[in-house]
Amino acid sequence: MYYVSTRNKEDRRTAAQAIAQGLAADGGLMTPEVFPKLSQNALETMRDMSYQQRAVYVMGSFLDDFTSSELSAFASRAYGPDKFDVKAVAPVRDVDGNTYCLELWHGPTCAFKDMALQMLPHLLSAALVKNQEEKTVCILVATSGDTGKAALEGFKDVEKTRILVFYPKDGVSAIQQLQMVTQEGENVGVCSVVGNFDDAQTGVKRLFADPALREQLAGRGFFLSSANSINWGRVLPQIVYYISAYCDLMRDGKLQKGEALNVCVPTGNFGNILAAYYAKTMGVPIGKLICASNSNNVLTDFLRTGVYDRNRTFYNTMSPSMDILISSNLERLLFALTGHDDAEVRDYMAQLNQDGRYEVSPVLRDKLGKLFAAGYCDDTRTQQVIGRMWNEHKYLIDPHTAVAFEVLDQYRKETGDASPALVASTASPFKFCDSVLGALGVTELEQGTAILEQLSARTGVAAPAPLAGLKDKSVRFAQNVEKDHMVDQVLELLK
Ligand SMILES: N[C@@H](CCOP(=O)(O)O)C(=O)O
């Protein structure tokens, strides 16, 4: 199977090339030329498999330049008991008999990003060998909180890799920041950027597009790649968990063969919900894809009107991982829904770059409306939902998950569509202790890592071990740069 750039479908690469490259040379996103189909029989075959086996089954259908024994070895290392605190890896919790919650935060950094970033280093390391690459890869990451730590943990001390993470100063939670600045490993770097996530992400994309920098780094024996969801190796493992959740629900008798399941995903960069869309494209009986946003509701407006307009106020919210106005992966959706019309996608992206805005064709708008629903939720409501979920279900959820529960509720009320629904739960509530404690009515908050124990004491829920362990770690990274000086950090790390 080949992968093509969303901006030039003549640019064809193998999976190993696409994964090593991260982003296409023209700034487009590498995307499969065709999507394999999963029959109902295939879903039934997978029903009784472990998560690791399902990952091999699904990923194998996309990665024909990787052997099945390679993928099996990667899956057992990526999703083993030393990495995930539950055997199921991505368990599905029954909330009320018709609403299910896919818990994606049982990995080493307590966020859904682990699902892909425990796998990507294996894929990328193998890809370097397959491509006979002699240079060391330097992974540049922009994060609004979760990707950064998950990528650092995944690539820590991985041979022939370096990793540098940029996060917005004052744009991530205190625990998220502590997770990153205390990162161990000889090949890692972390730096805050003056600005918001969009500034960090745009800065990173600018570095990828800088031919002089690439040449200079090549001279030092390095090339650049990405661990953000612009890299296909990030999106593919995310498709697996939607398929796995559907199989779990069938196995447990909660869904009948072929029964539609709506899926509601809190998303900022659109990678997580795009993975659900791809699972649907492959044949999983997913009904409506419900896109949940916080007050940075650029995606809500886009999916409702067909107009993408990032010219609006950027809010720092209590669900920081979704504080994004330039949503990278939408480009892959546009490519899919235009029938791989790279010229049309190029045109939209050029308008976005120039005016911060584009409007899709009426045909595309209709397709979006049939596939997606969208809504958003502000911080006040987010805290109410956290409080309600705790009081009614004794279920402790994080602010991003709360946004999704609220938007699903809005959708059900507005449409009367009472189909079974799956909510993607993207992070542990312990990553956002202050907001969660506030939602539970606590006003006097402990400082530093003591707040983890405070949330535990208030709820009787134990903090995940990797977060509880933060109190023994020392801060290693305190660098802060203006967005125009990110290049200096790269050159410093790779000197
Ligand atoms: N929500 C992200 C932002 C980057 O998104 P990605 O899916 O492209 O890595 C984060 O937590 O950093």
UniProtKB/TrEMBL annotation:
Gene3D superfamilies: 3.40.50.1100, Threonine synthase, N-terminal domain. It is an enzyme of class 4 (lyase). One of its GO terms (molecular function) is threonine synthase activity. Keywords: Amino-acid biosynthesis, Lyase, Pyridoxal phosphate, Threonine biosynthesis. Pathway: Amino-acid biosynthesis; L-threonine biosynthesis; L-threonine from L-aspartate: step 5/5. Residues 3-79 form the Threonine synthase N-terminal domain. Transmembrane segments: none annotated. InterPro entries: Ser/Thr_deHydtase_PyrdxlP-BS, Thr_synth_N, Thr_synth_N_sf, Thr_synthase-like, TrpB-like_PALP, TrpB-like_PALP_sf. GO terms for cellular component: cytoplasm. Its cofactor is pyridoxal 5'-phosphate. Residues 97-418 form the Tryptophan synthase beta chain-like PALP domain. It catalyses: O-phospho-L-homoserine + H2O = L-threonine + phosphate. Its EC number is 4.2.3.1. It comes from the Bacteria. Catalyzes the gamma-elimination of phosphate from L-phosphohomoserine and the beta-addition of water to produce L-threonine. This is Threonine synthase. It comes from Lawsonibacter hominis. The lineage of its organism: Bacteria, Bacillati, Bacillota, Clostridia, Eubacteriales.
